[in-house]
Amino acid sequence: MESAHTLYIGLLGLGTVGRGVVRSLESNRRQIESRTGSSIKVLGALVRHVEKPRNLDTSAFTVTDDPQTILVDPRIDVVVEVMGGMEPAKSYIRQALLSRKHVVTANKELLARHGDELGELADRQGVRLLFEASVAGGIPVVRMVQQYLTANRITSIRGILNGTCNYILTKMEEDGLSFADALQNAQRLGYAEADPQSDVEGYDSSYKLAILANMAFPIKSPVSAVQRQGITRISEQDIRTAQSKGCVIRLIGEAAYDGLQVNLQVGPRLLPREDALAGVRDVFNAVTLTADVVGDLTFIGRGAGELPTASAVIEDLMEVLRTPSPYWNAPLRSFGASEANDKGVKRDPGAAYFDNMVAPAWLRS
Ligand SMILES: NC(=O)c1ccc[n+]([C@@H]2O[C@H](COP(=O)([O-])OP(=O)(O)OC[C@H]3O[C@@H](n4cnc5c(N)ncnc54)[C@H](OP(=O)(O)O)[C@@H]3O)[C@@H](O)[C@H]2O)c1
Q1: Residue 88 and residue 160 in one domain
Q2: Is the beta carbon of 68 within 6 A of some atom in ligand 1?
């Protein structure tokens, strides 16, 4: 059946996520067409190395190392940025928005640092800027905060936002491995980068927490306001001590809003086994949102990987099809709220939860 409408996309990047997007658009083509009455067609993909073998059928689109092939093509409706890094990704996204192309991105650091500027530009240009894949991979938590809790006041966000750290902590707990050995395992399985610092030092979780906090709360939450601690100092003894107290250790990102200030923290926390996040193992992510009308909502799922991340990107493309109006960028505007929160971040009453736990001093914030 011929679709009434085709959405043309250009990919910036054809690595793990870009490949997953191409594969999933093909494998779920009928589902997409029957649900939306539209089809989605990839016209081109930007890469660094055109000749690199990709284990992917690229015969239906252009693979290029020239960004302008994608950015100036008037047929392309949506630019999907899945190349990562700050530059040239930011300049390419700006150029796409200035050309009135919608942008879908998975780039958490870029969003956390420049989401305000890019969101405002998208608004001015009358296009969408969507970034479901930037937080917690396949878990649709961005859309949940942006669109499904708009009549609620969200008071806190608490989650396991980095699958690599969760895998390492799970292996230390279940297999008695040292931090170094668990990290090596994660690298061997492709869960951790060759340079794992962004994951294990908590930067990656901080970016994701800042993105969620900027959408959920009416106060600007810059990454610099996140009190951050990684998991590199966790020893086998700490894990055993936690176990003896009926607890597990998880790297938790938490943002709480008391009506005046936002308190943002990322760090290892002792969780009692009955905590909703304590049973989250391996590379899984989980997020609990607390809001005044609905109460607690917890989402658990795969926080990274080719297909879960592609799922988030493709759901953003569905959203462009459903609602091309920038009206729904609105929650992004708190990225640009004038009241900065990067000085004198005070602890809020919610933090007492952690103070009351038995833990080495460094495990408390
Ligand atoms: N992987 C995940 O599970 C995951 C999950 C959530 C979010 N993300 C985010 O998604 C983005 C992509 O991640 P990924 O894992 O797919 O990365 P990746 O596998 O390293 O792929 C990056 C792609 O971008 C291309 N590229 C990079 N820099 C370029 C440049 N300057 N010019 C042209 N092409 C360039 C690369 O080309 P070559 O192939 O020629 O090298 C490659 O195709 C990142 O922002 C990441 O943080 C990833």
Answers
A1: no
A2: no
C-alpha–C-alpha distance, residues 329 and 271, integer Å: 35
Q: Is the CB of 49 under 6 A from ligand 1?
A: yes
- The DSSP bridge pattern shows strands 78-81 and 102-105 to be parallel
Question: What is the rounded end-to-end Cα distance, in angstroms, of the chain?
Answer: 58
Task: Kindly give the number of the ligand 1 atom that is closest to the alpha carbon of 13.
Answer: 24
Q: Is the CB of residue 56 less than 8 Å from the CB of residue 345?
A: no
Query: What is the distance between the alpha carbons of residues 252 and 266, in angstroms, rounded to a whole number?
Result: 6
Single pTM value for the model: 0.91
Q: Which residues are catalytic?
A: 208
CA dihedral 99, 104, 107, 113 (to 10 degrees): 60
Q: What is the pLDDT of residues 55-98, one digit of tens each?
A: 999 999 999 999 999 999 999 999 999 999 999 999 999 999 99
The finding on whether 309 has its CB within 6 A of some atom of ligand 1 is yes
Q: Which residues, in sequence order, are CB contacts of 172 under 8 Å at separation 6+?
A: 178, 179, 182, 234, 236, 239
Q: Based on the domain organization, do 185 and 222 belong to the same domain?
A: yes
Query: 48 CB less than 6 Å from ligand 1?
Result: yes
Domains held by the chain: number: 2
Nearest-atom number in ligand 1 for the CA of 45 is 43
- Range of the structural domain that residue 277 is part of: 141-303+339-363
| 310-332 tens-digit pLDDT | 999 999 999 999 887 776 665 55
